[in-house]
Automatic annotation (TrEMBL):
Coiled coil: none annotated. Residues 4-213 form the NAD-dependent epimerase/dehydratase domain. Belongs to the NAD(P)-dependent epimerase/dehydratase family. SUPFAM superfamilies: NAD(P)-binding Rossmann-fold domains (SSF51735). Pfam families: Epimerase. This is NAD dependent epimerase/dehydratase family. InterPro entries: Epimerase_deHydtase (IPR001509), NAD(P)-bd_dom_sf (IPR036291).
Amino acid sequence: MKKILITGSSGFIGRNLKEQLADKYLIIAPSHTELDLLDEDVVHTFLVDQNFDVVIHTASENATRNAKRDIHEVLPNNLRMFFNLARSHELYGKMYYFGSGAEYDRRYYLSKMPEGYFDNHVPIDPYGFSKYVMAKYSLGAPNIYDLRLFGVFGKYEDWELRFISHACCRVVWEMPITIRQNVNFDYLYIHDLVQIMTWFIENEPKRKAYNICSGQVYDLRTLAGKVLKAADKQLAIEVARPGLGPEYSGDNQVWLEEIGGYTFTAMDTAINELYQWYRGQKNNIDPARL
């Protein structure tokens, strides 16, 4: 049984990976108090002692409203966590970390950006730049791989900020769905991401960076309609600003061809599953925060 380290296991993606991979692998998912990723000596000693087959680095900082992070700490902390793991790459089999479409620079997003679009621009925001620096380093590292995510949704994400979960929670409380501005977005269901990760755990990738996305674009208003359909409710969809914002999507053909194809969970099915989950969590959702 492969031994896997998952960092950031209290976060959205890390928690789902820890929960869904536990029956297949020996999962080690230390808390921040158990493993301070900002301490290079602690990280090195931990890796020496554990002998992991795979490291999945999901821990990341971003200065969102609820994260309560100083925006000036995003860049140094993301890089320090990454390099404290990367500098000891000989102590584990391989490391996957989750990059971001932000590596392509949010000022210059294109529709369905391919991997080859990387490095056409250098991101100016701290989060995007931190992911850009990691990506540049991993290109020359023997066993470190960049899995670039775009929109990922599912249970345990921040329902106050993330659109699909926020919409589900508002509908649970019989509130209209609100959209700041409609935009086309590529969303990947968390359960699909977990399944995709099992392929990467079991196989040796041919490339150093992949767009991990569904390849299917939906506008937010359409997704809002799917939430209402799942709930079988008729509530308003309120859009604050007219027009369409910049599309956020990636081309996923490189990894689809390498793994031999993948059948994604239908968006209607995914949203229905997520809505039913939030309906069961209603008592834990404060409507005043919606």
